[in-house]
Every structure is written in C-alpha cells, then in structure tokens.
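The aim of this short unit is practical: by the end, you should be able to scan a pair of folded records and say something sensible about each. We start with the first protein, listed as its amino acid sequence and then its structure tokens.
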Amino acid sequence: MTETLPDFAAVVAAAGRLKGRVRRTPVMRSDTFDRRAGRAVVFKCENLQQGGAFKLRGAFNALLALPADAGVTHVATHSSGNHGNALAIAARALGLACTVVVPEGSSRVKVAAIEASGARIVWCEPGLAAREAALAALVAREPVHVVHPFDDADVIAGQGTAALELIAEPVDLDTVVAPIGGGGLIGGTALAVRGTLGDCTVIGAEPAGADDAWRSFMGGRRVGVDAPDTIADGLRASIGVRNFELLRRHVDEVVTVTEAAIVAAMRIVLEDLKLLIEPSSAVAVAAVLDGRAARMGDQVGVILSGGNVDLGQCPFLSGRVEAS
C-alpha cells in the first residue's frame, strides 16, 4: 500500500478545519422506526447539510488542507452530483474557480445544484473510465488542482467528521452503519469509530446491483463493477484504492440490499422521521431494517448521507406504481 492513508488524527484535524465551515447536522430518532427495526436507532442527518449531503465535509477539508503556497486558483473533479456540488460550494467560499466533469444521464437535480453553485460543467460519457479520461484531458489543457471524489486522504478524513459528531452526542452506540459507493464515507466513518469507540461494530451497506465493495470485502481483493444497476446513483462508483484498504482494516461487515428495500426505506424514513432522503442514504436504512447483518447491535447509529432527490423520479412521489 503505497498511497497515503488517513488516520484518526487526520479526522480530528479535519474537524478543527471545518468548524464554522459546515453545519453540525442534527441527530434524530423515532419510536415508530425503533419498533419497526426492533432496536434503538439514531440518524445523523447529513441530508440537512449545506448542499444536501455529507460531501461538503470532504471537499472543504481537501481545499483547506492545501499548503498556503500551493498557488491553487482552479479546482476540478469528476462527479455524478453531490461531490461536484460540494466542491463548487467550497471553491466559491474560498474564491477559487471550479470545473466538474459530469457523466451524461446524471440526476437533473444534482446537476442543477452544481451549476447553481457556480461550477463549470464538462460533460462526458457514463462510466468511471470515461469520467477519468475526461478529467485527465482537462488537466492536460488547463492548470487545475484535482480533488478526487473519494480516493483522497483529506477527503476521507473530512467525511469522517460526520461520525465524529455523531459519537460526541449523548448516545450509546454499539453499531454504526454507513452506505458505500467509492468508499470515502465508510472509510472516514470507520476511522472515527475506531479512534473513539474502539470495539463498536462498523457496517457498510451497498446496493445489490452495485456490489463491488461487498465482493471486494468478501474476496480480500479490490474489484470494480462495470455496469452498476441501482436507483442509488450516488453509490455507482467502484470502491477506491485507499478506501478498500480502510474497509479491509477497519470495517466489520458489508451487506447488500435490494432495490425494493431501498425504495421502501426511503418511504419509511419519510413517514417515521418526516425526512426525505435520497436512495443512497436509504441503502444504510434498508440494511438496518432487513436484519441480514450478522453483527447488527441493539444501539445503532446510521449516517444519512444525503437528501438530494429528483421528486419527479421518486417512485412514491411521482405517481408511478412501485414494483413489488
């Protein structure tokens, strides 16, 4: 492992940088949800973060961690939505230009948010290879500093501050659950948990149609997913190199959930907590509800990663009949 891995100290340092820069999002619970789940569950509501997702933490930390003499004036990334918006918000706050490479077919709501936050959009074909190629072409022709969406030590450390805040609440946790896409959130979450609660169980949740992290975890070797098929658009990326190493070292279990379970979890959270969450967030909720995780404890914390929902595409808000 030649790439630099963040550690718990990096998460603590990120929390210091981010003070006053990001919202300390609320932690919520519901008696009705607890009865459904058969356990006590608290939710860290990053759907209420500025930009509608936890991604602002990592993006801001990556920019604030740049050396003062780095001379960066223009930052860039590739993103299907939330990270691109987060980087645009952070860049604008720090007086930097921002360009985001966005694959065709991305969520209209998320693309509109990127544009509204002041970033320039460069379109590319869907798929990780096309995204990386388009970003490489941008780097070749313009002097930009790249902030990777997840495989970046400062991004991972920033994402871990959500769990650090959750753990600081007056709640007793024996399990923390977070969704897995590229792995920035689960990596940072695991670092925060291991540095504070020690033997608390860390569980990652993933759509069955984008199960590269589960297959990597079970096989002990990082693998990608070629054509992820899931409503959880924020979790379609394959797990990164640093992210898999943190998963392998610090996460206890990875579970997958079905598309029907994801949609059901979105609806349950709206009913029980009055919160609209995006499908990527609902993956972690579904993992708590379906009971398949072998190590799910009685006191559970869930990171609700985001709430950027295209209401016209939401199955139970658009008027479409849900699949059984």
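Turning to the second protein, read its sequence before its tokens, just as you did above.
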Amino acid sequence: MAFVPPTLADVRAAAARIAAYATVTPVLRNDVLNASAGASLHFKCEHLQRGGAFKFRGACNAVWSLSEDEARRGVVTHSSGNHGAALALAAATRGIPAHIVVPEGAVAAKLANIERAGGILHRCAPTIAAREETCAEVQRETGATLVHPYADARVIAGQGTIILELLQQAPDLDAVITPVGGGGLISGCAIALRALAPGIELMGAEPAGADDAFQSLQRGERVTDVVPDTICDGLRATIGAPNFALLREHGVEVVTATDGETRAAMRSIWAELKQTVEPSSALVLAALMKHRERFRDKRVGLVLTGGNVDLDAVDLRAA
C-alpha cells in the first residue's frame, strides 16, 4: 500500500484520539541557559511523557486507530527501546498484546521499560534487515498489525501533536529544533508547523556519527549506508523514505553536533534545568549552541524527546 502522508486534520484528529491517555507535557525555561545561548529557550519536556519519551503519542494514535478486529490480534514493531515501550504502554490502554522486536545490545533501561509496560520481547541481530525479518515472522504467526517506529502515517500524525501543544504554550516562536533519527517526529512537526505557523523555522539536529539525514538532504537522495557511531542510541535509525520526502517537501534543514558537544549540552540541562534527559534529547541544545549566532535574540522551542537514561553507561565528564 502506498504511503499517504498525514495532514493537519490528521494531526488534530490524533490529538483528540490520544487526549485521554497522553500527558500534556510542560514547557520549561531557564535564565542561565538563556544567557549562555543568547536566546530565549523554551524546552518542551517530552521526557516527562508516559513511558519517558514522545513516542507514546504516535504509538497511542496508531493503537486507537485500529478496528476492533485488528486490535484483537495485537500490534508488532521493532525498536531499540523508546518506541517499543511506548507501543506496549499504548497497547495496554486498549488491553491488546504488543510484540516488540529488539536488537541485541539495546540499552538495558529501555528494555526494562518495555517489559514493565507488558511488551512481549523478541530478540534479533542488531541490523535493520534482522529487525524487519523478525517483525514479518511475528506478523505471520500472530496476525498483529505492524506499527513502524517512524514510517507510519498514524505515528507521524501522533508525533505532530507536540506542535499543537507547543504553539499554545509558547506563542510567537521564531524556531523549533527537534532531534532526527528515523524522522517520525520531525515529519509530524513539519506538517503541523507549515500548516499553522509557516514563518517558524524548523531545524533537525542529528548526531555527527549518524548523519544520514544530513547527508541525504545535501545530496538530494536518501543515504542508507551510514554506520552509526554515537552515544545518541535513540537516533541511530536510518531516515525513513517517506520521512525524507516530507523533510524535502517542507524545506527542513538538518544540522549535526558531535558526541562531545552533546555530552556538554546534557550536563547543562541536568545541572541548570534539573531534568534528566538522554543524549538524544540533549542534542537539540548542542545544535543550538553550535549555531548560536543564528539564533541570537530569537525565541526557540527545543523538544526534549526522552529521559530513559542508562545511568551506568553515560559518561558525564566534560568533553
């Protein structure tokens, strides 16, 4: 079936569909971080979302979009952690099974979240091909509906609901920065922003060690051969084909930051904002600080996407 991108109407429908289950996350500000950046920063705290990440929005919308017959057979996905936990949580709100295919080497804290939420784990080799093959096998055995982590219109629409909230909580923004992994979040945000506030700049932040979206936009074609090497474990996925098309359609720019810059940003957020966010979240502040002249004196929304940190594995020493 051909991919049909969601519209603003789909994003609004998603907001109504998930309202009884998702958290309206706060927007936090901090004078020290504002002074350091030379800008007015508005942190959208999706690490305080159910499951500890923005992913619950898209997963919940997908689960509650299913017919009764589809729902009875459950859902399946592949995920390194946050999407899997989100889908398990969303499935629990409807009382249906959630099969989560996880690659070997996934962050222990995120696997624990999936199991706590009631997800049924299926392990596979740490490659996209192995993930997809195992998902297909589970589908054949159970009849479960695939809910792709980012290349699913229902998921994209759900992620776009962040913008509906952010524009109400922080009016008159000049720019919004979100992380980029597979591209579900930034795709949904692009659709909502371009429809509601086309004058607001949308920028994607990507790890320098997993810069396939950056390279893809530079070349004008999707790059799929980047081998990720980054502490941002939630951003190691290759940009999805429909997501790349949406970034190009909406003129989204992607910039990169190093792991060292991300560690420094994470230390700042933990120390000043008093929020425990994972590296994939801190990347947005790292990108802003790297391009601070571009954002000087502007009002910027930064989406902190997740807070499921493996504390034993994170090195918080200065870069």
